[in-house]
């Protein structure tokens, strides 16, 4: 059976689901994380926005949603406009307000080949555009998102993007890292990337008591792998090479 347009949902652990966009090529596909809370739910990133994501979230929970974007790239913020509460770091606020193919990196990555299943009949890649998703509030270093029974701390870890944040749950020592770190070539050369800041962010991450990383792309991993990726990067490796890498 070939996959249909829409989303796949995998329960990763109690209350944590990974939502994936079936229509996006795996090398480009963003990990969308849903965390069910007692009072509210947390959505970390929202994919490319090719089709609405809210109906899929509604199958998981009826709670109100705090939608967080880890940074303002097209593959992470495309569905953010659907949510009444959209939080992210203020450094990227103008991109959320006025996203373009250039400032969200869509121009550099989105090709006909990156969409493996058309989201609807007669879909043309030229019609893809990220919808504006103005922030309804800011998240910065030290802020806390409280779901009633689960608490997430905000780390500002710039470098890949100026407003890159990760969310950390101390109780489970779990980091939702966005594109700061994942198992693949890390992008340090986008128009607003900053290598020095990126290295400082990863050095900082290396010292944090993280046991599990749920990244913005690719499979989750543990502390040993996290240290390995950071050390590779700081030694000049682990860099993004090409779109098909
Ligand atoms: Zn990114």
Task: Describe the model.
The chain has 245 residues and is of the alpha/beta class. The chain has a single domain (7-234), classed as Metallo-beta-lactamase, Chain A (4-Layer Sandwich), CATH 3.60.15. Helix content is 17%, strand content 22%. The chain has 6 helices and 13 strands. It has helices at 54-58, 74-77, 93-97, 106-109, 195-206, 223-234; strands at residues 7-13, 16-21, 32-35, 41-44, 65-68, 86-88, 137-138, 144-146, 151-156, 165-169, 174-178, 212-215, 221-222. Helix 5 (195-206) packs antiparallel against helix 6. The longest helix has 12 residues, at 195-206. 41% of the residues are buried. The structure holds zinc ion (ZN). Zinc ion is lined by residues 71, 73, 160-161, 179. The site of zinc ion (ZN) has 5 residues, from loops.
List the helices and strands and how they pair.
Elements: E1 7-13, E2 16-21, E3 32-35, E4 41-44, H1 54-58, E5 65-68, H2 74-77, E6 86-88, H3 93-97, H4 106-109, E7 137-138, E8 144-146, E9 151-156, E10 165-169, E11 174-178, H5 195-206, E12 212-215, E13 221-222, H6 223-234
Parallel strand pairs: 4-5, 5-6, 6-7, 11-12
Antiparallel strand pairs: 1-2, 2-3, 3-4, 8-9, 9-10, 10-11, 12-13
Zinc ion binds at residues 71, 73, 160-161, 179.
Unreliable runs, pLDDT <50, ≥5 residues? none
Number of helices: 6
* Helix-strand sequence: EEEEHEHEHHEEEEEHEEH
CATH class: Alpha Beta
Provide the number of structural domains.
1
Kindly report the CATH topology.
Metallo-beta-lactamase, Chain A
Rg to the nearest angstrom? 17 Å
- Looking at CATH, the homologous superfamily is Ribonuclease Z/Hydroxyacylglutathione hydrolase-like
Query: How large a portion of the residues is in β-strands, by DSSP E?
Result: 15-25%
CATH architecture: 4-Layer Sandwich
Largest sheet: 7 strands, mixed
Distance between the termini: 27 Å
What's the count of strands?
13
Going across the major beta sheet, what is the strand order?
1-2-3-4-5-6-7
Overall mean pLDDT? 95
Q: Approximately how much helix is present in the residues?
A: 10-25%
Shape: globular
What ligand species are in this complex? zinc ion
* Coarse structural class: alpha/beta
């Amino acid at each position: 059976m070939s996959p249909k347009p829409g989303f796949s949902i995998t329960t990763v652990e109690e209350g944590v689901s990974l939502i994936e966009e079936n229509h996006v090529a795996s090398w480009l596909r963003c990990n969308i994380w849903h965390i069910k809370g007692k009072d509210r739910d947390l959505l970390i990133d929202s994919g490319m926005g090719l089709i609405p994501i809210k109906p899929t979230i509604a199958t998981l929970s009826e709670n109100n949603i705090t939608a967080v974007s880890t940074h303002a790239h097209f593959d992470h913020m495309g569905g953010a406009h659907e949510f009444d509460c959209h939080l992210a770091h203020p450094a990227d606020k103008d991109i959320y307000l006025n996203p373009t193919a250039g400032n969200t990196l869509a121009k550099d990555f989105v090709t006909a080949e990156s969409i493996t299943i058309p989201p609807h009949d007669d879909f043309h890649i030229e019609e893809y555009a990220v919808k504006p998703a103005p922030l309804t509030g800011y998240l910065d270093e030290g802020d806390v998102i409280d779901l009633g029974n689960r608490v997430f701390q905000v780390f500002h870890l710039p470098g890949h993007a100026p407003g890159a944040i990760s969310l950390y749950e101390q109780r489970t020592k779990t980091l939702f890292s966005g594109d700061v770190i994942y198992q693949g070539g890390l992008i340090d050369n986008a128009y607003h990337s900053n290598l020095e800041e990126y290295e400082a962010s990863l050095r900082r991450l290396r010292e944090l008591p993280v046991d599990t990383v749920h990244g913005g792309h690719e499979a989750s991993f543990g502390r040993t792998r996290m240290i390995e990726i950071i050390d590779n990067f700081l030694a000049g490796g682990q860099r993004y090479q090409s779109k098909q890498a």
